[in-house]
Amino acid sequence: MLCLRHCFRAIRAGQLHLYPCGPILLCSFILYAFLTKASNDVYLNETALRLSYGGITNWAHFTTPADVRAECTDGIPLRIAYFTRHTGTLWDWIAVAAHLHVPWTRVNPGLFIEYGINASAAARVWRDVGHVMCHMADILIFSDTIPDARPLLQGGCQTPIVLQVTNRFDYGVLPSDLLDYVALLSDVAQRPHVWWVSNNPYEEEYMVRRGVKLPPAERRMMLRPVGTCLLPDAPRPSGGGSARALSAAEAATRVALILPPYSRHLENTYIMPWLLRHGLTAHVQVYRQHYGGPAVLARHRGVITVPYQTSVMKMYEGLAAGAVFVIPSPELFGALVRKLDMHRMSFCCRELLRDHPDDWPQFMDWYHPDFVSAHVLYDNLKDLKRFLTDHTWSSQLVSEKRRIGTAAMADSRERTLDGFGRLLRAVSQQVCAATSPEQLRARGAVFRAERSLPLFTATSSSSSSSAAAASDDGVSPVRTVLAAGAEGPGRGGGGGIGGGRA
């Protein structure tokens, strides 16, 4: 075609007569007609299309995965749909995706799926929008609330799925539905296109305790949060309704205390009343639920916290930003959990300390060996009071802990980013191994409106268990444990803050 342009330009300019160009023009027109016919034969062969798609009868629910053969051949990253309700996990994924340069989109299941969706509701979602959810990307990641994946798991979606468990795999599932849900997850674990990622050490222990059969090691891993927070730069902290903003110097002299929104947390039931009773509030800056993020906490001389979960995004984000948490020592924490019921001290996982009385810190990132040395630990209220009032000593201790914490998070972040890179390469290879037209059509044809009933039913009977409430002997158990200090097995409590453990 370029030759034709040169010929026509030369003829118009009078530099070339038509006769020498005649054979060239004739051959060019013949070649153009041949290529056009070949192109039409390829793209407009309706007979071939009917043979390929003639077996499909339910077009309303039909869809097909994207043809990614070109991406696979050229090494172009595949598309990812990230399903999450939780802003913290979303921020974390944004950082991971940016590091790995992968194309992705976010879907908030909370906009159309109820918490702990049951089998019949999941079947309705699968029938109505399952084909959209299943094929909206080449890889699907469900984070934070794993029951949100139930419509696709139950319906038989063949797109590779990553279940990123961050807050118990059965969050929101009703007890009456739990056996069927566990049976579904156990079956899912055997499907080669479903991958499992936990973001803390406790998740796998919890799943095994609930009867879930985990997938083989090559399809599961633990990848902790990278600790990214995308809140806008916060103004200077003003505290819990204080009319005057604190200067940076003032913030550095005070210890932050975040009062959780629920009254059952120990910060509300005991620590704040204790501060008021002993006139220690001048050393503390009190915040409510919306405190401004980890950058605000990092300005302070420590952050008083009592863990209510085995891990929370606040810990990873705070350590990455340079915040230092002041928490009960493992001995004191264990004693508090054993002594206090849920009405006086909120903690998610009391069975962990019951079932693992000696090694429970291995499953709880607040006290895990990878992070515990970054925190300030206290064995009793005397230790905590010294930390609050001795500014010079505690400031030096916090400075050292801040260095340890940022280094620990840097190491953890590197492991997580490397792990996600390996995970997505493995899943992408799985996608690229099944990209023939026949395989794509077969995966698209699984959508049938009549496939709306639960596929898995548990046959075992439910077993009930109840935890005995702690008795109240008339003496404040919090005061008794905190004031006296806690004794670990074969050793006394009451060591200085940090001590050899920190």
Outline the structure in words.
The chain is an alpha/beta fold and 502 residues long. The protein has helices spanning 2-12, 18-43, 46-53, 69-74, 87-100, 119-135, 150-155, 175-188, 202-209, 248-253, 266-277, 294-297, 313-321, 330-339, 350-355, 381-389, 391-432, 437-444, 477-484, and strands at 80-83, 104-107, 139-143, 161-165, 194-198, 220-222, 255-258, 284-287, 303-304, 325-328, 376-378. The strands form 2 sheets. It has a 6-stranded parallel beta sheet, with helices on both faces. Strand 5 (194-198), helix 9 (202-209) and strand 6 (220-222) form a beta-alpha-beta unit. Helix 1 (2-12) runs antiparallel to helix 2, helix 13 crosses helix 17 (391-432) and helix 14 (330-339) runs antiparallel to helix 19. Residues 487-502 have a biased composition (Gly residues). Residues 480-502 are annotated as: Disordered. Keywords: Membrane, Transmembrane, Transmembrane helix. The chain crosses the membrane at residues 16-35.
Q: Note the gap between the termini.
A: 76 Å
Mean pLDDT over all positions: 83
List low-pLDDT spans. Answer: 237-243, 446-475, 486-502
Largest sheet: 6 strands, parallel
Cα radius of gyration in angstroms: 30 Å
Q: What is the 3D shape? A: elongated
Strand content: 5-15%
Q: Give the tally of structural domains.
A: 2
Q: What structural category do the secondary elements indicate? A: alpha/beta
Helix amount, in percent? Answer: 40-55%
| Count of helical regions | 19
CATH class of the largest domain: Alpha Beta
Order of helices and strands: HHHHEHEHEHEHEHEHEHEHEHEHHEHHHH
The name of the CATH architecture of the largest domain is 3-Layer(aba) Sandwich
Count of distinct strands: 11
Q: What name does the CATH topology of the largest domain carry? A: Rossmann fold
Strand order of the largest sheet: 2-1-3-4-5-6
Region (Disordered): 480-502
Keywords: Membrane, Transmembrane, Transmembrane helix
Transmembrane segments: 16-35
Biased composition (Gly residues): 487-502
